[in-house]
Amino acid sequence: MLRRAVVLRTLPAVSFHHRTYDAWDIGPGDVVYCDPPYTGTTGYKGTPTFDHDQFWDTCRRWHELGASVFVSEFTAPDDWRAVWSLERAIAVDGQRGKAHTRVDRLYMHASV
């Protein structure tokens, strides 16, 4: 964890924000990291259903505008490629002692 803090402090003019993905005005040269609700998982109680198709269309538009877009997900549409992955055990329905393996992936548009 300390290594991440050291790396982040060395990046000039970086700002981090938390807000809904459709509230951004993304343009050329921007670097975007998205961590949406993973496809096929249970959403958060009290939040609206997440529209994955609309999300991926938005990410494609940002890419076309010249942004570098990275998305954390288990799967992605065919026009996106995994650039990093990590296999990990996750709990099933919050039950302790019951877990299975999933592969977290970081995707970017395949044309990059």
Task: Provide the descriptors you would attach to this structure in a database record.
112 residues, alpha+beta, four-stranded mixed β-sheet, 4 strands, 19% helix
Could you describe the 3D structure shown?
With 112 residues, the chain is an alpha+beta fold. Helix content is 19%, strand content 34%. It has two helices and four strands; from the N terminus they run αβαβββ. The protein has helices at 2-9, 52-64, and strands at residues 31-34, 68-73, 80-92, 95-109. Strands 1-2-4-3 form a four-stranded mixed sheet, covered by helices on one side. β1, α2 and β2 (68-73) form a beta-alpha-beta unit. The radius of gyration is 16 Å and the shape is globular. It starts with a helix and ends with a strand.
Major sheet summary line: 4 strands, mixed
Number of helical runs? 2
Provide mean pLDDT, rounded. Answer: 84
Molecular shape: globular
How large is the share of residues in beta strands?
A: 25-35%
Counting helices, strands and paired strands, the structural category is: alpha+beta
Distance between the termini: 29 Å
Biggest sheet strand line-up = 1-2-4-3
Q: Name the poorly predicted regions.
A: 1-7
- Number-wise, the strands total 4
Instruction: Write the element-wise H/E pattern from the N-terminal end onward.
Output: HEHEEE
Q: Taking Cα atoms only, what radius of gyration do you get, to the nearest Å?
A: 16 Å
Percent range for helical residues?
Answer: 10-25%
Short description:
Helices cover 19% and strands 34% of the residues.
List the helices and strands and how they pair.
Layout: H1 2-9, E1 31-34, H2 52-64, E2 68-73, E3 80-92, E4 95-109
Parallel strand pairs: 1-2
Antiparallel strand pairs: 2-4, 3-4
